[in-house]
Design goal:
Elements (H helix, E strand, L loop, with lengths): L2 H15 L2 H15 L17 E4 L4 E3 H5 L4 E5 L6 H12 L1 H6 L3 E6 L3 H4 L2 H6 L3 E4 L4 H5 L3 E3 L2 H11 L3 H4 L6 E3 L2 E5 L5 E6 L9 H10 L1
Parallel strand pairs: 3-4, 4-5
Antiparallel strand pairs: 1-2, 1-5, 3-8, 6-7, 8-9
Helix pairs in contact: 1-4, 2-9
Length: 214
């Protein structure tokens, strides 16, 4: 079963068990982002923005230092509280040996504070770098950051007990559009997947296909 087939099953379970009002609000927001006149994300051929961020263990990681060792698969996710994101990261972990065999590495970024980025279990299971973009500056530089509208804040707080300001240790409700960029050693974006529908993600097999083209 592919990653997105699994995510479709999760979506069906969400629709079967969540209030209709919450579903309507979330799907409305997805549609608004999809129809935005200002598209999200860096484009293929553009220069990747350099950054230095901290991982879950407190180490500073610089993108261009990592590119000196080979291509980088850079994926932005919403946070460990998002079940679709957790499933995505686990699926990417499963193909990590193949990513590394192709001379590349995987880096994942979320706006959560370093203490909230990974659970203890995930720290043990995930073998790639997971970084904290606490104020969303890196996501903004990749043109994927947005402020969560109040009606979605209400849904997340009242329907699911989520306070993103607390998770992200900031006073702003911000999220990245789920995105995956393939960046070559020269810092050029060679592939870009940016999808406002957070219930869909870039397939692991597509990551491998894109890396084989580099």
């Amino acid at each position: 079963m592919s990653l997105n087939q699994e995510l479709t099953q999760m979506k069906q379970a969400f629709e079967a068990n969540s209030p209709l009002e919450a579903q309507t609000a979330l799907y409305r927001h997805i549609r608004e982002q999809q129809e935005s006149a200002d598209p999200f994300g860096l484009q293929v051929g553009q220069k990747a923005r350099d950054f230095t961020l901290t991982d879950a263990l407190g180490r500073e990681i610089n993108l261009y230092d990592e590119l000196a060792h080979g291509p980088v698969v850079l994926t932005f996710y919403r946070g460990g509280w998002c079940p679709y994101c957790s499933r995505q990261l686990k699926a990417y972990q499963q193909v990590l040996p193949e990513i590394e065999a192709l001379g590349a590495q995987l880096i994942a970024i979320s706006p959560q504070s370093p203490d909230e980025t990974l659970s203890h279990t995930e720290k043990d299971e995930l073998r790639f770098k997971v970084l904290s973009d606490r104020h969303g500056l890196v996501a903004a530089s990749y043109r994927i950051l947005y402020d969560v509208p109040e009606y979605i804040q209400d849904v997340l707080q009242q329907g699911f007990g989520l306070d993103l300001a607390e998770y992200n240790a900031t006073n702003r409700w911000i999220l990245p559009v789920p995105s995956t960029f393939m960046i070559d050693e020269s810092g050029i974006v060679r592939s870009a997947y940016v999808n406002p529908d957070f219930m869909q993600r870039f397939e692991p097999e597509e990551i491998l296909n894109e890396l084989r083209k580099l």
